[in-house]
Amino acid sequence: MDIRKLRYFITVAEELHFHRAAEKLNMTQPPLSQQIQNLEEELGVKLLERTKKMVRLTAAGAVFLEQARLIMAQLERSIQLTQKADQGIIGHLTVAFVDSASGSIMVDVLRKFRAAYPQIELTLREMTSSEQLQALADGQIHIGFLRYPDHNGHLSFRVCQTETLLAVLPDHHPLASQTQVSITELADEDFILFPRHLGSPFHRLVLDYCREHGVDPRITQEAIQMYTIVNLVAAGMGISIVPSSVDVFERRGVVFLPLIESPPSVPLYTAWRTDMNQEVISRFMNIVDEIVEGEYKLNKK
User: Fold this and answer.
1) Whole-prediction pTM value?
2) Which residues in 23-61 are b (16+ Cβ under 10 Å) and which e?
3) Is 217 helix (H, G, I), strand (E, B) or coil?
4) Quick check: 212 and 241 in contact, CB under 8 A?
């Protein structure tokens, strides 16, 4: 059915006068009358009773008027939503993150983004860096917060935060009362580390740092989640080296100590698809840039 006919009918039904309705529609009366007649023939019902003195709705016409108004309102809403989607004001984003990012700049980004764009639905997924890279490549997520980049395919990467490394020890450890610790003091400890096969760059970063200072870590336990690593340290299963943002967990039974030998920086990357939902992703990345810039200015002071 031609949407124009619905608009013509609504106007006539509201005016109950063909001449006034025609003027309101910027058209002449004869074609308007013909359009209403065509509409009635199409529906097979009489919508309006007409005499020389008056026009009124039939019972069927009153029902059709109510439904026509709903259709036009839904059409207008559909147009507005489509335009907002094109502008990146509404939509859906799936954002993944490594668990160590939960104490990072990501929290501020999500908070500000939700406040700025409440109509954009956010789905959050905790994934390892390697899982995120695969999910990005497969189009299962739109944005990731991860520890290392892979510049294959339609992906872009940006460093959003740079951290350092901390040693995490049980609080009853002989070195726990120190304000900092040397990596050489941990040479004979049992290490709990992130698995090499799930995050080889970070795993290698820790090993390289230790070996650079003459320590060959004895890895006795592996765990995928940083929170699990911290819990295992609290249980006395060993010690670990983790990104500095992990200390936000504040787990009882452990202490986080700075390392005396300058540890390497640990970047946190934001990764996104360059060929999906660009307006929504662009708005998210603008928030990331605002937060990063704010952190930079704060640290500079």
Assistant:
1) 0.67
2) eebeeeeeebbebbeebbeeeeeebbeeeeeebebeeeb
3) coil
4) no
Distant-in-sequence, close-in-space partners of 166: CB < 8 Å, separation ≥ 6: 241, 242, 243, 244, 246, 247, 256, 257, 258, 259
Strand partners, 273: 155
CB atoms under 10 Å from CB of 184, counted, come to 12
**194 neighbors 224 (Cβ within 8 angstroms):** yes
| One-letter identity of residue 138 | D
Residue-by-residue DSSP string for 73-117: HHHHHHHHHHHHHHHTSSEEEEEEE-GGGGGSHHHHHHHHHHHH-
Q: What secondary structure letter does DSSP report for 183?
A: G
Tell me the per-residue pLDDT of 129-178, one tens digit each, with 9 for 90 and over: 889 999 998 889 999 999 888 876 778 999 998 889 999 999 999 999 99
Ramachandran sector of residue 294 (left: φ over 0; alpha: ψ -120 to 50; beta: rest): alpha
> By C-alpha distance, which of 259, 238, 251 is closest to 185?
259
Question: What letter represents residue 268's amino acid?
Answer: L
**φ, ψ dihedrals at 157, nearest 5°:** -130, 145
Largest separation between any pair of C-alpha atoms in the chain: 105
Can you name the residues that pair with 146 across neighbouring β-strands?
269
